Each structure stands twice: as C-alpha cells, then as structure tokens.
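REQUEST
  id: r-88c1
  op: predict_structure
  target: CLCKB protein
  payload:
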Amino acid sequence: EEEEERVLVSEHTWRPCPTARRRLRVCLEWVKRQLFRVGEDWYFLFLLGVLMATISFMMDHLISRVYAAHCWVYQEIGDIGVLKYLSWTLYPTALATFSSGFSQSITPHSSGSGIPELKTILMGVVLEDYLAIQNFGAKVVGLTCTLMCGSSLFLGKVGPYVHLSAMAAAYLGKMRTSVTREYENKFKQREMLVAAQAVGVATVFGAPVSGVLFSIEVMSPHFAVRDYWRGFFAATCGAFMFRLLAVFNSEQETIVALFKVDLKIDFPFDLLETFFFVILGVVCGLVACAYLFCQRWMMVAVRRNWLTAKLLATDKPVYTALVVLLLSSITFPPGLGQLMASRLTMKEYLTSLFDNHTWGVRAPNASWAAEPGGLWQEWHHPSATVFGTLAFFLVMKFWMLIVATTLPLPAGYFMPIFIYGAAIGRLLGEVVALLFPRGLHPQGLSRPIIPAGYALAGAAAFSGSVTYSVSTALLVCEATGHLGHLLPTVLAVLVANAITQKHQPSFYDAPIIVKNLPYLPPIRSRHTASYKVVVEEFMQRRVVALAKGDGFQEVLGALDASADAEYPVVESAGSPTLVGTVSRAQLVTFLQSHQHPQAPPGEKVAPVGTLGDDCAIEPIMLQLSPWTSLHQAYHLFQLLKLQRVFVTRSGELVGAVGWTEVR
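RESPONSE
  id: r-88c1
  status: 200
  body:
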C-alpha cells in the first residue's frame, strides 16, 4: 500500500503553469503538422545540403590555411637544400601517415573513396558499418589530413565527400523516423541516399545540375523519377550555401563559378576545330583505357606481393609513409618537381590549365613572363618548353596517381583525373595553336586557337571516360562558368566514352571486381546473340528443396547440405510444385523444438511434426521461366534488388538464379 501511495504521489506531483504548458504543447503539435504538411523529407534534405556545404567549406578553409603555413615555412628556410627537402617531404608524409593510422584505428571502412561500396549498398546489399556515424568522423579527419598534403599526393575530395553525404543522410533518416515516430522504411532510406550523392558532388564543385546527373550516371543503374526533384533540391541548397559561405568570408563579392575563366565568347572555336576535338576524345579514350588497365593491375599486384600485402594487413601507416615519401621526393621543386609545376595546389592546377593565353606563342616574351600572379609561369622552365613540361607532367603523374590509389587512407580520385585530362587537352591545344598561329583560316581574319578550350574538353573527356559519365561536360561548364565550348566538349566526351566502355570497366567498378563485392556489373556485350541467352542456360539446377511433409531428419540434411538464407518448399517429393519458401532461421527453430529420431529415450520428449505444420511458409512473389532472357533477368535483379529467384516450369521447381549465375 505504501508503494502504491508513493506512485500516486509522484504521478500527481504539482507542476507550475499547467494550462500554459498544455497550450504550448498543443501549439507545438499544430506547428509540426503545418510544417510537415508539404512533407517532412524536404526539411531534412535542406538540412542535409546546408550541413554538407558548411563542412565542405570549413574543410577547404582549414586546408588552405595549413597549406599556406607550410609554404611559408618552406620559403623562410632559405637556400639550405637539406632543410628544404625535409620541409617538403616530411610535411605530407606525417599528415598522410596520421590520416591512415587515425582512420584505420576508428574503422577499416573509411579508406578509399567509398563510391564502390555505395554502389553495392544501392543494389540492396547490406554492408555493415559503411554508413555508421563513427565512420563519418574518421573520414572527415582523415580526408582533411589527406588534402592538406597538397598536390604532392595528387588526391582529391569528391568520392569521400559523396560517402560522407551518404552517412549524413543515413543519420538524418534515423532522426526523421524519431521525429515523425514512423517505422524505418528502406525506400525512404534509399531516397535520402540518392539525394546525398548529388549533394556530395554539388558541395565540392558548386555545380548542382551536373551533381545530380553525375550521381545518376555513376551510382544508379536505374533511377526513380520521383527521386529527381529531391536530388535537385538538396544539391541546389548545398551548392548555394557552399558558394554563399565564400561571400560571407570575403573571398568573393558575389556567387560565381568555382574555377572562373575568362575565355572569348564571341568566337570560341572554328568549325574546323571540331576535327581536333574528336582527336582529343580519341586520345583521352585511349589513355583512359591504359590508365584503367594499369590501375586495376596495380591493385591486384599490391594484394599479391608478399611485402606490400603484409604491410597493408598489419602496418598500413608504414606503407603509407613509404609511398608518400617517394611521391613527395619526386615532386621536390628543386628536383623533378620544377618540370611538373609541383608548387601549385590542386585548384591552382586547374586555374592555370584553363588560362586564356597561349603559352607556346608567348613564352619567349619577357614582358608577359614578368606578369605578376601568372600561374602559367610554373609551367615554364628555362631548359624546357611548355610542351616538354606538360608532357613530362603527364608521364609522371600517370604512374604516380596509380600508385597513390593504393594508399589505405580516405581520398578521392576524380579531381586528379580531372586535372590530368585538362593537361592532355592543354597540350593538344598548344600544339594546334603552334601549328596554326593565325587560326585555321590564315588568309582571312585572324582567329587564333584557344588552348584553354581544349583543356576544358580534355578534363571532361578523360574524367568522363574513366567514370563512364557524360555529365562531366556540364560539370566543366558549371565549374568554370563558360558555355562557349559545350558542344565540342560533349563530342569529345562521347568519343572518349565510346572507346573506354568498349574495352575497360569503369574506375568505380574496378575496386568492386578486385574486392569481389556483391554487385552486378553492366552487361558489356550488346551483340544480338546476347539477347538470345535464356535462364535455362546458366541457372543453378541442383537446388536443395524441402517438402511440406518433411520432418526432423530431412530438415537437418538440408541445413547441412546448403548454407542458403532461404529454402524452397515443394508440395511433395513426387510432385515438385513450388508452394513457397522458408527461412533458415525458422528451420533452425524447427530443429530446436523437435526431437531427433535417434535421441536417447531419457531425453526430454519434443512434439513430433512436419515442416508444413510447424513453419510459416512464405508465398512466392516472383519466379522466372526457363525461357526468360538474360537481359530480362538482369534488369529484374537491378530494379527489385533481388538476391535469388527460383525458376519453375509449369509450376514445378527446376532451378534457381542468384547473383553468381547472373554475373
């Protein structure tokens, strides 16, 4: 009685202003209903865009400050060669080692870009801890330290930031379910993840339109139109906030393109130059094929070599330190770095390659060479021409970037290939400008070649061919604010993509292949004969099935014979008509609740029953025919996120098709 009295007293404890509190509660409920009348998703998408834009801007601001301090220390050392070398090499080595060690100590899933794993998750596969909130912190810190290394490491930000946006979207999705008090919905989670991909690209380049298109091309084999507006809304909020913060920080007077260029709009290119843009697309496609082949070979070689495999398994920071020390030593400015413009940052690389001047013609001009603030001067060397420095840059960065992709730290690889493509285009543009100094019509009005236009097309063509995307043509235009070369840029991107997609898998599909992740690669063969391949030719014919009348012994034998997550149930052994499926967990429960036929008589007697009586048999929602084509089965697996489908002929079970058979 005393206990009940205490409970009643605690329940009726007096609180001040009960009427005001009740009215406030009603008012808050009304505000919540009014705000969520248009859909609560839009508020969380807005929050996602603003949050990721703020983090991106803060990362860039911190990176620029720390890198400026490192450059100041390097300049203040003077002409002491040993100290300059130590200052140049130990700085990125220490940061990269810390990035690798810190991120790996928190979670091993924070290294790399994260896009291959995201593609697998969007296919319906559950990868544990890849979207965990602790991975978010590890990747933010690790990526910031990686980018502080500068161009010596030659790595970017796009891929990891897409992964970060996905992790933030997953966390906000859990917040949404707690606020709205709804059950967690997998379809809602997918919608947030699809929008997060566009936000990741938009908050790095300030390009919302190409961010949405890039996420569709790279991440989603099938895109739901209802996700289109969500992606655009979140990407626009993120890109606007990202550029608005630059205005608030007095970096710009108004919102402009991230890599603003000053190219001529009245006559951007001659019609005959289309031929050279096609050649640029062919060159980018061939170089992309070589790059993708070598990069995939390097990933396999590092895993198979006993020394590197041991270091990556036990001492990842040591492997990172050795590789970064090698790369930074090569880019040392008084050494080979002076032929690669190694003192430029990643952003300055693009800004210099998009320069409006023609370097090959004006390089000997002493007055123009003395122009203050000209980043092009880093590409000019007294003992080599700009053609030599650009060619040397392309040769060295080709293998250096491949080696850098094996580092176990958070890093992106889109920005480096974007810059590499711009260098290819710049070199070709300078060659064309040297061959035709007055343009392609020397007799008429002088219309000189603009090499920067070729750099724009090269950046889009090479990065697009490596990642299997065409939206990079629009990304170049949004990032630079220049639309004059849009058509030749799209032409070069299409040509480069046609060559690469014919011979090599995508850059983001290669890690999936090497890591053997559960993902369905695209059907590369478009020959007419591939459409004649039917399920009967590649299905799994030996399927462990159970009958409705099976007992303990048959269920135990099925569990021992196969490790499948679900088992087909047929009518009887003599009539293999498929009636449904039963999960492995239910079969284990069935065994635990029944007695083994050969059990000792002294044990506890369990009820005797059959599978059809004691287990819930789930009905079959989808089944394939033996004459279903390969392309139809492939698209069903992608659209419905299927893992395994049974094949029936006239209702009778004849086989099964899973990811292994489709691949």
